[in-house]
Amino acid sequence: MSYTKSPRNARNSRRGKPQRFEDNDDAIELLESVGPVVLPPETESFDELDLSPVMREAVAEAGFTKPSPIQAALIPYALDGCDVIGQARTGTGKTAAFAIPILEQLDSLEDCRDPQAIIIVPTRELADQVASETARLAHGVPTEIAVLSGGKNMNRQLRQLENGVQIVVGTPGRVHDHLQRGTLRLDKAWCVVLDEADRMLDIGFRPQIERIMRKCPRNRQTLLLSATLPPVVRRLAESYMSDPTVIDCCQNEMAVDTIEQRYFTVENNRKVELLEQLLEREDPEQAIVFCRTKRGTDRLSRQLSRIYHGACACIHGDLQQRERDRVLQSLRDRKLKLLIATDVVGRGIDITTISHIVNFDVPQDCDDYVHRVGRTGRMGRDGIAFTFVVPGEGEMLTSIERRINKELIRDSLDGFEPPPTAAEQQPEPEEPVVEVRRSLNPMTRKKKRRR
């Protein structure tokens, strides 16, 4: 039994290049400058999406009962071969939104041994997760998926590509490396997915992404998904997409409704003490504590390991890939209660048992805050996030609140009561003014003027 093929000739019937972006502070006008903006429809079942029987069975096997807004909106356009920009909050099922239409339209490996779809993601962990989710949705139909990311065995990747693959999931650096080696051919790739595009551009992958896009056919389909659409992402869309449809599932609210967000005001030298008391009060099922630096992550992990012993671990960019994979697998297996991490796990990592997020260090970028907090409250679950704000970081807190269009709730613990605000401070009673009579030094007193 094979998938029912959907026509892909819509990719060949596109109009000219979209107009150039204009500087405009209004978010809706900015999105409309890219292409027509579509809001997600009300869809109660995957049966309404015109999927093949095999895919409907695979979706049910994966545990999906009702399409999320991004899935309900993006899948029909992707099946029609349109270029799509999908803006959706993290944790809303974006992977399935682009994986389902790709799987529905794949040719068999016997018909095409070169990659037909390539999915570019910012991190190694996200590449593994996307490949795993795609393989799960391919239930019932043999599908060859290759993960091309750094830290993995190169010889194994070469063997996979030589034997033939249908879908490539990779990070920009390793995919570009294979293109330079000549071990990866993309001339048959009819679909390119840029997942978490804003993050890839933030960390400097634009040159590699542009070279990858130029290696793909001109009449390809391009799907760009992200939780935020800053100007640099819109410029990339302008250059490499044709008449894209913009799907806005954020509806002017970047924070997930099911996530309660609080903050503490604390001195920098008391943050560890506050964290220990907070974890004791909350007793989270599983929590991620975000730090700003790798050294700070290591130091905090060592301090908390004295309390949590084998239930605490850390992860950052300097760890070997094997160790990073081991830590994440332990978190998924619920062997870890506490993960201390940098922003390397701030994007796309989907572990539904994460109940608490703690921003031990306030992120430098507001969008990083959005993605950190999005590690909890996945797919409608409840979650809570705490942010430690030290004196002098008030402006950063205000920027975050403006970005998510929501005020964070001020929290407190015994011994960590927040200082009163200016409105709460009681004016001190004025002391009575006592007139002090000035006495002159007799030695400097002026003599009476003689007549």
Automatic annotation (TrEMBL):
PANTHER family registered for this protein in UniProt: ATP-DEPENDENT RNA HELICASE RHLE (PTHR47959:SF13), ATP-DEPENDENT RNA HELICASE RHLE-RELATED (PTHR47959)
InterPro entries, A to Z? DEAD/DEAH_box_helicase_dom, DEAD/DEAH_RhlB, DEAD_box_RNA_helicase, Helicase_ATP-bd, Helicase_C-like, P-loop_NTPase, RNA-helicase_DEAD-box_CS, RNA_helicase_DEAD_Q_motif
Q: Which family does it belong to?
A: Belongs to the DEAD box helicase family.
Q: Please verify whether the record's keywords include Transferase.
A: no
Q: Which residues form the Helicase ATP-binding domain?
A: 75-247
Q: Which UniProt keywords apply?
A: ATP-binding, Helicase, Hydrolase, Nucleotide-binding
EC number(s) on file = 3.6.4.13
Q: What is the lineage of its organism?
A: Bacteria, Pseudomonadati, Planctomycetota, Planctomycetia, Pirellulales
Q: Where is this region: Disordered?
A: 1-24, 411-451
Give the organism the record lists. Answer: Allorhodopirellula solitaria
Residue ranges annotated for the Helicase C-terminal domain, each copy included: 258-424
Supply one GO molecular-function term.
hydrolase activity
- Know the name of this protein? DEAD-box ATP-dependent RNA helicase CshA
| This protein's record includes keyword Nucleotide-binding | yes
Bias type Polar residues, positions: 1-10
| Domain of life of the source | Bacteria
